[in-house]
Amino acid sequence: MSYKNEKLSEEKVFKDPVHRYIHVRDKVIWDVIGTSEFQRLRRIRQLGTTYLVFHGAEHSRFHHSLGVYEIVRRIIDDGFQGSPEWNNDERLVALCAALLHDLGHGPFSHAFENVFNLDHEDFTQAILLGDTEVHKVLSRVSPDFPQKVADVIGKTYPDKLVVSLISSQIDADRMDYLQRDAYFTGVSYGHFDMERILRVMRPEEEQAVITYSGMHAVEDYIMSRYQMYWQVYFHPVSRSAEVILTKVLHRAKYLNENGYVFKQEPTHFGSFFDGTFLLEDYIALDEGVVTTYFQMWMKEKDPILADLSSRFINRRLFQYAEFDPATEYKKVFELGKLFQEAGLDPEYYLVTDSSSDLPYDFYRQGEENERLPIFLKMPNGELSELSRSSDIVDAISGKRRTDHKVYFPEDLLEAGKEANPLYSKILHMLKG
Ligand code: ZN
């Protein structure tokens, strides 16, 4: 039997708090899970700094990746198989892409990518195609198999139906993270009837669609996504932690570039500081390594690096105020000057940050970042874009919501305001 079709002599089962069980019968899947690059995902949290707000959010990208795999496996094995629109030769590539779609995420992804100007998707491709254990396993299926998996994840794979299972507005990725993040944060939104959605999902040539009778389950899913974004993913306090984390890395990079001598050489960051971005260095980094450096940097001579590191480790976060860039741009500029006068570097202590999300969008020709809309399969067999049938989805589709905040160390300003009148002036401007 070929490696592609090889089954384990006994099915392996992972116990999972969201899907109850995750089933593995394919030898290839089992071997991929055992690679060091995949095991590394256990050491990267799914929600970055969110655990500093919702203390349950300690779940890792390993959990989520297995969950996405299980959803795609169920869509194919319990739904699509046997249907004329589904080509079962695509099963293994779809399962591998589901399992590996987040493989390139680094520690505290967003902050890390932002500081070093990286893209986790590039690293996913690099790990799949480079000299890695994952690459060796996938190559045993066929020499072009790693590239096929990379193409599904990169959305360039010719079978669009396969791509849509992993990246579309109703894909296995979102269906897993919404439920999983709701479970681990303990919030009551984020839940929806996935069982129902899986039952009403149908394969079509270009993408998976939903039969008309499943419209309400999809509405519920879209609303839960909308609420999770604003209640969990863009929570201002976890953004504050992310701002501080970003600034710690910025400071360390800046100091390194300016000849500062660290008490503890930041060896693990070497190829990020010098811009060579070695794959082996990236794979060696995880959140344990990063927080270990932060612990050591708390004792550095540089006061900014020491203060910011200690803020992150001990959760002394920045306070925030609403800020409208259209009308208050000048105010932030003035504040920046005051910070400077007061001896606080505004680069690190006065930070503006924006979050933005589009809950659902339909296809508008010629627009950039077109999103593949969700289609309902009507009783007469025709496909109809979701917002044309659903008033609820119509009400929020295409509407981008953005919010802007400015972050600052209120504790420090409060503590020093008696001695330093500039501090009270700053506080008054920020909070008044
Ligand atoms: Zn994902």
List keywords for this structure.
53% helix, globular, four-stranded mixed β-sheet, alpha+beta, binds zinc ion
Helices and strands in order:
Layout: E1 7-16, E2 20-26, H1 27-33, H2 36-39, H3 61-80, H4 91-100, H5 109-116, H6 120-129, H7 133-141, H8 145-153, H9 160-166, H10 172-185, H11 194-200, E3 201-203, E4 208-211, H12 215-233, H13 236-257, H14 270-273, H15 279-284, H16 287-297, H17 303-313, E5 319-322, H18 325-341, H19 346-349, E6 351-357, E7 375-377, E8 383-385, H20 386-389, H21 391-396, E9 401-408, H22 410-416, H23 421-431
Parallel strand pairs: 4-7
Antiparallel strand pairs: 1-2, 3-4, 5-9, 6-9, 7-8
Helix pairs in contact: 1-4, 3-4, 3-10, 4-8, 4-9, 5-13, 6-8, 10-12, 13-17, 16-17, 18-23, 22-23
Which ligands accompany this protein? zinc ion
Averaged pLDDT: 93
Radius of gyration: 24 Å
Structural category is: alpha+beta
The main sheet orders its strands as 3-4-7-8
Got a strand count? 9
Distance between the termini: 73 Å
Please state the overall shape, judged from the principal axes of the Cα atoms: globular
Beta-strand content: 5-15%
